[in-house]
Design a protein that fits this description.
By secondary structure, the protein is of the alpha+beta class. It is built from three helices and seven strands. Strands 1, 2, 3, 4, 5, 6 and 7 form a seven-stranded mixed sheet that branches. A hairpin with a 2-residue loop joins strand 1 and strand 2.
């Protein structure tokens, strides 16, 4: 495998692990995907650093079952230690009471993730993530 392939694979994995941890409310694992000084920007909030991201994510409502689905991301390598990525995201959700019957799941948001990735001593991490909403129900 080429170095470029390894970089793209590591960045794709960060995108996939982010939504996996969000949907399981595992915010401690989620913040480890960010560089220590990483930033997560979403409509109405900019969180800088792992502690700020964790505090904001812990305010997220736990009364809904969510599933985030990302398209295959486009990863552009900037240098051996930096890359950019972008993908579309679709959010399906349902009230938690319907957890046993996921037929209540419906698309409630379509958006985009725009990421800057950086190679750290602990491997590739998200340096900056911007979440943009295209449409929301």
């Amino acid at each position: 495998m080429t170095k470029d392939h390894d970089i793209r694979d590591a960045c794709r994995r960060l995108i996939a692990e982010f939504v996996w941890h969000v949907d399981r409310n595992d915010y401690h694992a989620l913040v480890e995907l960010f560089a220590p000084d990483g930033v997560f920007e979403r409509p109405g909030a900019i969180m800088a650093g792992r502690q700020a991201i964790l505090a904001a994510m812990e305010l997220r409502s736990c009364d809904r079952l969510t599933r985030h689905f990302c398209t295959d991301p486009i990863i552009d390598i900037v240098s051996p230690t930096a890359a950019n990525g972008r993908c579309y995201v679709s959010l399906q959700s349902a009230p938690l009471a319907e957890r046993g019957d996921q037929s209540g799941m419906r698309v409630t948001l379509v958006g985009e993730y725009h990421d800057r990735f950086v190679l750290t001593g602990d491997g590739w991490r998200i340096a900056y993530r911007t979440a943009r909403i295209i449409s929301q129900d």
